[in-house]
Specification:
With 149 residues, the protein is mainly alpha-helical. It is 79% helix and 0% strand. The longest helix has 43 residues, at 28-70.
Length: 149
């Protein structure tokens, strides 16, 4: 059952990363499916206490995502996708998820800057990153760590 949940999570996470790369947007329906899946998995794995644990992580991540959106550090899709991914992760793994996303986001920035320099592409507008890639990769990393534990 745990492997089936991991496959569902991976498909949703990778779809979010792909749409963010391709269109610089993460569909609301995808974030909603990710949220429903995460909370359902929490109930299956831990009943009401699992729902409170994962739901608490979702709420904290939602506040953080909305704050990052408010200061224009993230787009709206990222601000919704992050808490939906967090719904799959118990609260005691929340710091691991945040750190993984931050580190992978730094790698994403480095790759993006390097690609722009190598192609000599100079955009006039602001630098936009498909940060959904870092969110998805961070979530996959944490899911892998929890599976191995």
């Amino acid at each position: 059952m745990q492997y089936a949940a991991l496959i569902i999570f991976a498909v949703l996470a990778l779809t979010g990363a792909w749409t963010d790369i391709a269109r610089r947007t993460i569909p609301n329906v995808l974030s909603l499916l990710m949220l429903i899946g995460g909370l359902a998995w929490a109930v299956i794995g831990g009943g009401w206490s699992g729902l409170l644990d994962h739901g608490g992580h979702f709420l904290i991540a939602l506040v953080a995502g909305m704050a990052l959106f408010a200061i224009r550090a993230w787009g709206g899709g990222d601000a919704k996708f992050y808490p939906a991914v967090a719904a799959w992760v118990p609260l005691d793994h929340g710091v691991m998820l945040t750190v993984a996303i931050a580190i992978l986001g730094g790698v994403l920035v480095g790759v993006y800057v390097l690609m722009r320099r190598l192609t000599k592409h100079r955009a006039d507008g602001p630098l936009t990153l498909p940060y959904g890639v870092a969110i998805a990769a961070g979530g996959l990393f944490v899911q892998g760590q929890m599976l191995l534990a």
